[in-house]
Structure formats: structure tokens, C-alpha cells
Amino acid sequence: MKIKFQKDSSLELDEIEVEVRALEENTTVKKLINYVNKFGKRNRSLLPIKTEDRIATIKVDDVIKIEVQSTSLTYFTTNEMIKTSGRLYQAIENLNENFVQVSRHSVINLNYLESIESGFAGNMVAILAGKLKADVSRRYLPELEKELGL
């Protein structure tokens, strides 16, 4: 990765423009853009989740995994399971670096990952704390391995 500064007198005093260049928009590029977007914002430790009858707040560190089916999001925590509506990419924006997307419909907290095993039909399965499982698609497996340092 190359980082360079270029002075631009056409910008305002407090204005900063960041451009990311790469051969393609891969997961590293997306993570970098997400990181830059979060720069300067307060890092929250609580997630507000609006359900049908209440607004629940859960600690980010207590979230084991998040799954989506259509527009129904399910948060699996150490204490409970909370269902709400929304999109997975919006939920990911509020998470920290401990979370990694393992399929189009699932995000896991690496702090609760116990193992990764071969699953049915050639894919992998992440075994999580609390007897939870998450399918790991082949597309997301390299990013998961990279996050684990493999």
C-alpha cells in the first residue's frame, strides 16, 4: 500500500479529500473506505436495535453473529436473540474490527470463533460459542483466513 500527501489549494481549510486507487474494489479496499469513513467518529460500545415493541441496546462485544434473511436481521448475543428489520451492510457499519463477513447473509465476531470445519456441499462452517454455527462461503473464506493470520 502506498500513501502520499498532495496539497490542493482548491479545498477549504477544514476540507480533506481522500481517493483510494486499486485494480479492483476488493474487501481490503472496502475495509479501508469503511475505516476512513469512521475516522473521527466516536466509537460506540452499544448498539441500539429497534424491534417491533421496543428499542433494545446491546453491547457490541456481546454480539456473536448477525444473520439476514431477506430484510429480517437477527442478532445473536451471549444472552439473547433479537430480531429486527434492516440490511446487513448497514449493520456492519456499526461494528468494529472484530467482525468479519463470512457469507452474503452472515457476519461473525472473531472473539467467539471456536473452529472452522468442513461442511456440507464443499463449504466451510464456523463453529461459534453458544453452539452457534455460520456457513462460510468460498468467496469469503480467504478474507476470514487473512483475519485469522493464516
List the defining traits of the structure above.
about 150 residues, 3 helices, about 15% helix, three-stranded antiparallel beta sheet, alpha+beta, five-stranded antiparallel beta sheet
What does it look like?
The protein has 150 residues and is of the alpha+beta class. The chain is built from 3 helices and 10 strands; from the N terminus they run αβββββαβββββα. The strands form 3 sheets. A 5-stranded antiparallel sheet has the order 5-4-3-7-6. A 3-stranded antiparallel sheet has the order 8-9-10, with no helix packed on it. β4 and β5 (81-85) form a beta hairpin. The longest helix has 12 residues, at 27-38. The radius of gyration is 18 Å and the shape is globular. The chain starts with 26 loop residues before the first helix and ends with a helix. The mean pLDDT is 89.
What's the short story on this structure?
This protein is α+β, with helices and mostly antiparallel strands. The chain is built from three helices and ten strands; from the N terminus they run H-E-E-E-E-E-H-E-E-E-E-E-H.
The total count of strands amounts to 10
Question: What is the mean pLDDT?
Answer: 89
Secondary-structure-based class equals alpha+beta
Which stretches of 5+ consecutive residues score pLDDT under 50?
A: none
Can you tell me the overall shape? Answer: globular
Amount of beta strand? 35-45%
Task: Give the helix tally.
Answer: 3
Order of helical and strand elements: HEEEEEHEEEEEH
Q: Biggest β-sheet, characterized?
A: 5 strands, antiparallel
Radius of gyration: 18 Å
State the helical fraction: 10-25%
| Biggest sheet strand line-up | 5-4-3-7-6
Distance between the termini: 20 Å
